[in-house]
Backbone:
């Protein structure tokens, strides 16, 4: 019979190896995808440019890598990890496999904010941030509404929260339809925004999204143990000394923050937040201390790769990344689902 | 150590669920709460654990009022084996038991040696150590119940609450679980309070029984004092034959046919 201490160290070793393996995968993903595009730039050159080696390449290469591809890859990583971690936390909190970062109606809310800016030109700022800022603000307004509608005294029942999210989301979806109806020339912009994508990436967006997403992911990960126990049931969590309502509130606030940040810089990219956590859960198990960081890395890699396909498949133009994420991700997920349904838990 | 329940009333909205509940349990003692559906058994258990907060009355552990404790402190004093312990997710048995250390774990440092030692000890006591790396959703009902008991013990509680610990278990596992609970109570000097539907098992394994009737204590005492045909008639509303089996001190309650 195995010693408990040994079992514990083995588990931690396995977790560490998983993270190292995924981190290597992530770094390779970044370097390889930076080479891809209309101009083929050799991997060695990409490597040298990133590490500021003495210059031995055309100026255009440096511009392409540093100002065009790199911010896009970084933003893809941020958005992918944000959605995957937020989805994972929501599934744990709601104990529902259908939960995604958009479960509280954030997608419709932010879409309404964005379409206000696109169609009516209403925003707090002018220029490139007009649309992202409105999307961000309306995402948070939506969550605030949903949370307060669902609250009963000091308690927030998850079922009520879910239904409130659906209803508020439906309301904003209708307003988005109205905006589309009256959009005229701008219809195309709204539709593009709704499909989501990373074509408008820039370092400015990275700088704004990075601290929000980093903070959110860090806070969510800090509550990994609580999420594990709450996945088993709220009553279990109370019995084990967890302040359930407080944890719920913190997780909801920070998943919303992370999702709002992701959506405001990339539009509504579907699938990542719903399916990546499931795929990772099948492989690493239900323990959030490994599930969250793994989802973070896998989500980042997945979105970088699918975005690379989106921008290279039909050059010189590109596909919306949402089409790729679902077209490639769904069959793979179904394969895993059939093969290892037993370990899913729901 | 003593647990004192002092005059608690509990209301769901405006419906009274518990009224003037007062009793005392000493360390090493196993108290069985019995009574028909809706008599307030589970509500009482949840009040003791402060999951529900009674408006009137107090719950004292050695004269310390636990309504002043935060959840973490309550978890260090009271371990709970809830009624429905179905766990669908493939956490390993070891992971589940380790969760019992939650109230003690420093989140930045993680589980330390002491946490692992206690986990190992309670897994030995509950005979679940050989299951340590098995997924919880793939073991039998009886095994699962032992794992949840191990988790509650990992909290190093002074008080152990069990809600229908033998529900849906076969007789062999029923006996195994209750023997385990009684042994733990005596060995670790715990206060054990368990809700039970099974009058026979409750009379056999509990030192004292507490019979609830419409949210009030109808009778409290030894099985011989509480399980009388008159009490059962009054509380459950049926006539019964009562058979005592002295070797095990079990009372077999056989309902008469309803006319």
Residues:
């Amino acid at each position: 019979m195995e010693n408990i201490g040994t079992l514990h160290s083995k588990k931690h070793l396995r977790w560490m190896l998983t993270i190292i393996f995924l981190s290597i995968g992530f770094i390779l993903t970044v370097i390889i995808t930076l080479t891809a595009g209309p101009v083929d730039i050799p991997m060695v050159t990409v490597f040298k440019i990133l590490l500021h080696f003495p210059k031995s390449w055309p100026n255009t290469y440096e511009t392409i890598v540093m100002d065009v591809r790199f911010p896009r890859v970084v933003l893809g990583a941020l958005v992918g990890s944000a959605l995957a971690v937020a989805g994972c936390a929501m599934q744990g909190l709601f104990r529902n496999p259908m939960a995604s970062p958009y479960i509280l109606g954030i997608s419709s809310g932010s879409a309404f904010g964005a379409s206000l800016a696109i169609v009516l030109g209403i925003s707090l700022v002018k220029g490139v941030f007009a649309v992202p800022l409105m999307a961000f603000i309306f995402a948070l307004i939506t969550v605030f509404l949903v949370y307060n509608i669902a609250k009963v005294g000091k308690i927030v029942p998850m079922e009520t929260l879910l239904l409130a999210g659906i209803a508020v989301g439906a309301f904003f979806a209708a307003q988005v339809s109205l905006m589309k109806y009256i959009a005229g020339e701008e219809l195309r912009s709204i539709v593009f925004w709704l499909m989501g994508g990373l074509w408008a990436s820039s370092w400015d967006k990275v700088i704004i999204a990075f601290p929000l997403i980093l903070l959110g992911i860090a806070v969510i990960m800090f509550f990994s143990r609580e999420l594990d126990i709450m996945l088993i049931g709220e009553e279990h969590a109370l019995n084990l000394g967890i302040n359930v309502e407080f944890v719920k509130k913190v997780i909801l606030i920070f998943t919303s923050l992370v999702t709002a940040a992701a959506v405001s810089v990339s539009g509504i990219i579907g699938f990542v937040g719903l399916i990546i956590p499931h795929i990772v859960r099948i492989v690493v198990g239900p323990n959030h201390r490994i599930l969250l960081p793994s989802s973070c890395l896998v989500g980042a890699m997945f979105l970088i790769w699918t975005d690379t396909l989106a921008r290279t498949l039909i050059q010189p133009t590109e596909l919306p990344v949402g089409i790729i994420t679902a077209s490639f991700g769904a069959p793979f997920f179904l394969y895993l689902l059939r093969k290892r349904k037993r370990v899913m838990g729901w | 150590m003593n647990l004192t329940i002092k005059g608690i009333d509990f209301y769901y909205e405006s419906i009274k669920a518990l009224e003037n509940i007062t009793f005392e349990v000493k360390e090493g003692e196993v108290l069985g709460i019995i009574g028909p559906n809706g008599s307030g058994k589970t509500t009482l258990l949840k009040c003791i654990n402060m999951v529900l907060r009674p408006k009137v009355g107090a719950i004292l552990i050695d004269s310390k009022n636990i309504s002043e404790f935060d959840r973490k402190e309550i978890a260090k004093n009271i371990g709970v084996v809830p009624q429905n312990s179905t766990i669908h997710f493939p956490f390993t048995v070891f992971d589940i038991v380790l969760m019992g250390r939650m109230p003690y774990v420093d989140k930045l440092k993680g589980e330390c040696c002491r946490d692992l030692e206690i986990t190992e000890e309670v897994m030995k006591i509950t005979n679940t150590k050989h299951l340590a790396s098995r997924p919880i959703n793939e073991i039998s009902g009886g095994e699962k119940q032992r794992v949840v008991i191990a988790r509650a013990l990992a909290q190093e509680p002074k008080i152990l609450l069990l809600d229908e610990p033998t529900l849906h278990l076969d007789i062999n596992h029923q006996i195994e679980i209750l023997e385990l609970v009684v042994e733990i109570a005596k060995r670790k000097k715990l206060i054990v309070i368990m809700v039970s539907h099974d009058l026979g098992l409750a009379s056999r394994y509990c030192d004292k029984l507490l019979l609830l009737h419409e949210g009030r204590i109808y009778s409290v005492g030894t099985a011989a004092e509480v399980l009388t045909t008159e009490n059962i008639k009054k509380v459950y509303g049926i006539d019964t034959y009562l058979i005592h089996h002295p070797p095990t001190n079990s009372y077999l309650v056989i309902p008469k046919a309803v006319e």
About this structure: The interface with chain B takes residues 1-5, 7-8, 11, 222, 225, 228-229, 231-233, 235-236, 238-243, 285-287, 343, 345-346 of chain A (CB under 8 Å). Residues 4-98+202-343 of chain A form a domain with the ABC transporter involved in vitamin B12 uptake, BtuC fold (CATH 1.10.3470.10). The first helix of chain A runs from residue 4 to 35. The radius of gyration of chain A is 21 Å.
